[in-house]
Amino acid sequence: MTNPTLMLYASLEASEPMSGSAAFAVGAASALGAHLDVLTPFVDIPVSDNWKGRTAEQIEQESETRRQRTASLANAITNRAQEIGVSVTGQTEWAHAFGVIPFVGDQAKLRDLCVTGVDRSIFLSERKVAEHLLFDSGRPVIIVPARYAAPFACKKVTVAWDHSRTSARALHDALPFLHLADEVNLVAVGGEKQFQTSPDRATIEAVLGRKGLNVRFEQIDLGKRTIGQALQDFALERGAELLVMGAYGHSRLREFILGGATREVLDEPQLPVLMSH
Predict the structure, then answer these.
(1) pLDDT for position 58
(2) Domain containing residue 52: CATH number
């Protein structure tokens, strides 16, 4: 990517400036020499259980407090980025006529890559935002576990490879990260579907090697695990700091029908995962 731009979607309830998706996005922007756009939309949500007993002044004060907390989160993330020399901008206001999730998706279409968490416990589920980004923005998305707190690293990367169009798209979307890596492991999980492809292991490794990548291709057995479990287990066993995989699914009347591995990794990512559809 030339002059790449990353976008971080940071929710007020689930984001911390020094961990999770924010920490990953800042570190990734620094490593890639990218500009970072921090999007923390101010969403005015009533938080009191005693709705009928509140005065107009109390409602207004709650809204102002939430606005201030949103601005503080955006400032904390942008300040951290600036401290390590990352070009960064922050945004809290958004076009309310479109709804916050479609607004985030429209913003993502203009960036090279998006970073978000997948917390489902909050009012505006990060998981729903991540799904929308995956299937509507046309951009790759990195989902990051909330517990992620390690300094950004991308020395070892695992790529899920089933010889499909979607895995090819994910592989090439991830090239900026793969070029940071000392070791790239392509892994095909057997036992659930048969692969029909002409390139053998030597061809795969040689072609990707000409891109300057140190690649090793392996096929592993599924055993009694799901594909999502097998992929994440393999990545963690190899010490990977990033898993790359294609996201499967389609939209029907705005309800997402996800492939099993996609759903499982979105439910509980064990490490940062770059997904591409």
Answers:
(1) 78
(2) 3.40.50.620
Q: What is the dihedral of CA 73, 78, 79, 85, to 10 degrees?
A: 160
Number of domains in the chain: 2
Of 110, 143, 176, which residue sits at a domain end?
Answer: 143
20-36 pLDDT, tens per residue?
999 999 999 999 999 99
Quote the CA–CA distance of 136 and 191 in Å, as a whole number. Answer: 31
Distance from C-alpha of 3 to C-alpha of 55, rounded to nearest angstrom = 50
- Residues 124 and 218 both lie in one domain: no
Q: Is residue 150 in a domain?
A: no
Q: What are the tens digits of pLDDT across the range 47-82?
A: 555 556 677 787 788 888 889 999 999 999 999 999
> CB atoms < 10 A from the CB of 222, how many?
14
Residue 9 near residue 15, CB atoms below 8 Å: no
Q: How far apart are CA 268 and CA 72, in angstroms?
A: 28
**Placement of tokens 């206001």 in the chain:** 93
Per-residue pLDDT tens for 208-258? Answer: 999 999 999 999 988 888 889 999 999 999 999 999 999 875 444 333 444
Please tell me the distance from the alpha carbon of residue 276 to that of residue 273, in angstroms, as a whole number. Answer: 10
Nearest one of 149, 179, 148 to 244, comparing CA atoms:
179
Nearest to 139 by CA among 163, 117, 114: 114
Query: Would you call 275 helix, strand, or coil by DSSP?
Result: strand
15 and 138 inside one domain: yes
Structure tokens at 89: 């901008």
Minimal CA–CA distance to 142: which of 167, 124, 117? Answer: 117
What the block records as the tokens of 140 is 């790759």
